[in-house]
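pinging the channel bc i need a second pair of eyes. not urgent but kinda urgent?? the chain im working w is below, pasted from the shared doc
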Amino acid sequence: MNYLFLFQAECAEEEGKYTTAVVSGERLRYVSDLHAMELGDEFPVIIESFGIAKARCERITSSEISFCLFDRTEQAPSYLPVTLLQGICRPQTLKKVLQCAAMFRIEKVIFFPSVLGEKSYRQSKMFQYLRQQAELVKGAEQVGNAYLPKVEVLNSITELWSDLSASSVRMVGEPGASSYLVRSIITATQVTNQFPEGIALAIGPEAGWDIEELESFKSADFKEVSVGHDHFRVEVALHAMLGQLLLWKEVAGSSLISE
């Protein structure tokens, strides 16, 4: 990992500045396993909802690791304004989805059961808050993201509609859809020089959507989009779509985009 993520609860402030941090409990094992360190080691850290800093390892015991924090740089949130609507999939895939969400700095992930999804996956330990946070942290540590996506779990697809902004551009991934993702954004916003303020992106589980679900999305103003005619794995489709959205955000308004 490129950074060590520190939660605010692990950090202590002095005169309004984070000066020290202590990692213990379950987090101690994670830090010890993934961030091998020795006394005196210095390395970059992320402080939750604050920014980045440097840390010096000051103390290592069997129950905790202590750090001194310095060179702190506060960062404003820089989200990719996407709410991911993810049909519940296999636990190992859920981990990749959460890591991906943090790496692409999206705002929110909403998991919900789908008709063709395996029902037993809803009982996975991955729906425990701490398990989700652990995967988000892995993604955040890769890119230096201090602002973790929010995660919500719903009981049915019908609960989705009240969670979405009325002004969001809405897209549902469907292999082989005639409209490609970026072209759909341009059409939906009717401009080529402005990135949408909010995007709702729905991606199905391994088995995809059934006909009634697609009709429900259509009724809620979702447009079917794809990144090609192949049926990708969930995490591959997610990476491909978020990559295209990120590219569009970066070049919106430039000469690279035209009708």
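so The chain has two domains: 4-74, 80-251. and The first helix runs from residue 26 to 34. — does that match what u expected or am i reading it wrong
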